[in-house]
Amino acid sequence: MIPELSNPSVCMKDPQRVQEILQSMVKAGSNTVQVISDFDMTLTRFAYKGKRCPTCHNILDNSKLISNDCKAQLKELLDTYYPIEIDTARPIEEKLPLMVQWWTKAHEILVQQKIRKDLLATAVQESEAMLREGYQLLFDHLHEHSIPLLIFSAGIGDILEEVIRQAGVFHSNVKVFSNYMDFDESGVLKAFKGELIHIYNKREGALLNTGHFQELRTRPNVLLLGDSLGDLTMADGVQDMENILKIGFLNDKVEERKQSYLDSYDIVLVQDETLEVPNAVLLYLTGNK
């Protein structure tokens, strides 16, 4: 049906179910489809030529915009909290307050750095952030077919937008829900806006912007892209959902996490740095078979 689903990186627990969802979505038509995606390590690469690629936060961490002392403090937070985030043995309820603690502290440290808005573009330019191979087709095709792309990210919205802007694909159908910086009148970071959006509350953060959801009511078929089990709740705000096809990127720690990904995502892409499979699914859904 879609030859790319036979790629070596593709794992499916129930291929038959995947075919059924796809057929049902094709029947409904691409004007009923919306794409909900995570950003870091989902739309962006996890690694390139054996080297880890930066997340939105990393772009800032590695930039000239923050002091070495600040970098050390952020690194210390990462070493403390990241192992907790990826620990599958801990229940979400237990991780939640700790994740909030992590990002609240990190944001406080960043605010002390008096980061200038006009230097963010340079920080992105000088970084090694890369969208996954095939990004041009994904973004352009969605735009051409007027399919909304909602990006939910626990990262930093200003940096995320700059990455897609510099890649030339920040089209009008793209909506971003993320943590945005608040600058004072002279363009210096003074705080982060609104509620903290983190890995486990992306959906709630999204629901606050119900205006966007009104226009999406006529799109009950969802293609969801993520790289963590926390991303699975991103579509919880979709009303009267008919079908959802969940594609998960399993970037690392493959052996210990593979089973939980297979149980949760319909299609699991193991260490696949491209958007080849999501693009093939998209072309199929829009009738470019």
From TrEMBL:
The UniProt entry, under InterPro entries, shows: HAD-like_sf, HAD_sf, Pyrimidine_nucleotidase_eu
Signal peptide (residue range): none
Query: What is one process in the GO biological process aspect for this record?
Result: nucleotide metabolic process
Annotated GO MF terms: 5'-nucleotidase activity; magnesium ion binding; nucleotide binding
Q: How does it assemble?
A: Monomer.
EC top class, in one word? hydrolase
* Protein name (database record): 5'-nucleotidase
Location(s), subcellular: Cytoplasm
Report the EC number(s), separated by commas if there are several: 3.1.3.5
